[in-house]
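Design request, tokens follow.
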């Protein structure tokens, strides 16, 4: 039974790492859940409660950073709610359209939403680009946090 639980825990961590770049999956939360499951399997003997506490803080930071980065960059560019809604719709549409869709549909969605709002192509492009850059910065930061969490997990297991 422990072997099955360990396989599930490791799969959760792996899927969580993939989820940091795929918007459909809550990557940081899955990594944390997998690590907590692994800690629970051995009764928190190898992975301590303190380690889980540190990882919980990183999980909260990782969950918030993505939204904050995108919202701040959109706000700095002067995005309206239509631009932000367009970016969200583009992100959802990108899930179903492959890698290029994941990369560029949020930009297109934000630009389209902003264009509908102001009928200004230059402003729409600026907001779309800023929102897209915020999305990329958020994804990179989340990825760094997830790799840090995974490193802490592996170090706790090995040391």
């Amino acid at each position: 039974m422990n072997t099955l639980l360990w396989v599930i825990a490791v799969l959760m961590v792996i899927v969580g790492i993939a989820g940091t770049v795929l918007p459909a999956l809550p990557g940081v939360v899955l990594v944390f859940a997998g690590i907590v499951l692994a800690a629970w399997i051995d009764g928190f003997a190898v992975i301590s409660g303190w380690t889980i506490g540190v990882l919980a803080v990183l999980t909260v930071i990782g969950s918030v950073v993505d939204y904050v980065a995108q919202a701040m960059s959109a706000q700095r560019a002067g995005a309206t709610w239509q631009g932000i809604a367009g970016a969200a719709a583009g992100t959802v549409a990108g899930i179903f359209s492959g890698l290029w869709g994941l990369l560029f549909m949020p930009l297109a969605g934000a630009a389209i939403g902003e264009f509908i709002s102001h009928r200004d192509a230059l402003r729409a492009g600026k907001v779309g680009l800023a929102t897209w850059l915020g999305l990329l910065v958020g994804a990179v930061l989340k990825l760094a946090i997830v790799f840090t969490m995974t490193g802490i997990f592996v170090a706790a297991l090995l040391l």
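Comment from the thread starter after seeing the answer: thanks! The chain has one domain: 2-158.
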